[in-house]
Write a structure and sequence with these properties.
Helices cover about 20% and strands about 25% of the residues. By secondary structure, the chain is an alpha/beta fold. The strands form two sheets. Strands 6-5-4-3-2-1-14 form a seven-stranded mixed β-sheet. Strands 7-8-9-10-11-12-13 form a seven-stranded mixed β-sheet. The N and C termini lie close together (about 5 Å).
Length: about 240
């Protein structure tokens, strides 16, 4: 299983990166996780759009869905060129009317995800956990080839994430705020909290994403390392991880 990080920022893209997103690949299947601003341009550096198999969205804040409309136009063009016949599947929850917008004519099709059941998308098995965020948002456990990835999506601390992430091979955690902002900014984790989650869930490695555009981001790594003994790394566009 391969992870390619496409973007690292929360809120809005920076001059050096789209917003937080990554591409998963297993058995030749390509799954795009979140599709915020700048993501559609970046993903084409790693996979031709005709070979992109599905997209899944954690929630409907714009830094996670801003490029969905452009993705739909791309699938329209692919269809007209004869490169894609079936509607391109875009997975998201139904707790918001924005789910209806995921279906665009015969070119894209919205498909539901929920905490009630796990689903298979190509070779990937996915299950979900509701997070604590200003809008309804789902963390994801993604399993394939006997390995597991836990993606927190956007959330503040929630005890349920410990058992949900237990023994994951990779924890991809948001780290939107610095320790001194704890309690001031709601709906997000500090680097320290991401480290605590990694430690208590006993994951093998931790990657920090959904980063702030300000401050010294390496401080987030220091915060996490103070409470977690495993490998910790900030993500960046083009970072590739192979899970063997």
């Amino acid at each position: 299983m391969k992870i390619t990080f496409l973007g690292k920022y929360g809120g809005y893209p920076g001059k050096d990166s789209p917003t937080s997103s990554f591409l998963l690949e297993s058995a030749g299947f390509h799954l795009l996780v979140d599709c915020g601003s700048g993501v559609l341009s970046k993903v084409q550096s790693y996979v031709d759009l005709k070979d992109l198999d599905a997209c899944i969205l954690s929630h409907y804040h714009y830094d996670h869905i801003a490029d969905v409309g452009c993705l739909q136009y791309a699938m329209l063009v692919e269809n007209k060129l004869g490169k894609r016949i079936e509607p391109f599947p875009i997975y998201g929850h139904k707790r918001d009317s924005k789910f209806d917008d995921l279906t665009h004519d015969v070119y894209t099709e919205g498909r539901e995800i929920s905490v009630e059941k796990s689903i298979n998308i190509g070779p990937f098995n996915l299950s979900f956990c509701e997070t604590i965020h200003p809008v309804y948002c789902l963390a994801m456990k993604i399993q394939a080839e006997g390995k597991s990835i836990l993606y927190t999506a956007d959330t503040e601390w929630k005890d349920d994430l410990i058992s949900f992430a237990k023994n994951a091979d990779v924890l991809i955690s948001e780290a939107s705020i610095y320790k001194e902002q704890f309690g001031v900014v709601k709906g997000h984790l500090t680097g320290e909290e991401a480290g605590i989650l990694a430690n208590q869930a006993e994951v093998k490695q931790l990657f920090l994403t959904h980063l702030p555009q300000y401050g010294e981001q390496e401080k987030l790594v220091e915060e996490a390392k103070n409470v977690y003994g495993g490998p910790v790394q900030l993500v960046y566009p083009g970072l590739e991880i192979f899970i063997n």
